Amino acid sequence: MNMTHKILRSHLVEGDMVPGREISLRVDQTLTQDATGTMAWLQFEALGLPRVRTELSVSYVDHNTLQMGFRNPDDHRFLRTAAARFGAVYSPPGAGICHQLHLENFARPGRVLLGSDSHTPMAGGMGSLAMGAGGLSVALAMAGEPYAIPMPRVILVRLSGHLTGWAQAKDLILHLLGALSTQGGVGRVFEYGGPGVSTLSVPERATIANMGAELGATGSLFPSDEQTREFLRRMGREQDWEALTPDDDASYDDVIDVDLSALEPLVALPHMPDQVMSVARLCAERPDMRVDQVAIGSCTNSSYADLEQVAAVLRGKRIDPSTDVCVSPGSRQVLSMLAADGALTDLLGAGVRVLECACGPCIGMGSSPVSGGVSVRTFNRNFEGRSGTRDAGVYLVSPVTAARCALDGRFTDPAGWGEAPARPDFPHAVPDGRRHFLFPPADPAEASAVSIVRGPNIVPLEQFPPLEDHLDGTVVLKVGDGITTDHIMPAGAEITALRSNVPAIARHVFSRVDSDFVHRAETARNSGLAGIIVAGQNYGQGSSREHAALAPRHLGIRAVIACSFARIHRANLINFGILPLIFVNPGDYGRVKAAARVSFATADLTPGGEMVMNVEGTGGIRARNDLSAAEWRIIRAGGLLNDVRGRNAARF
Question: CA-CA distance, 267 to 6, in Å (whole number)?
Answer without folding.
Answer: 35
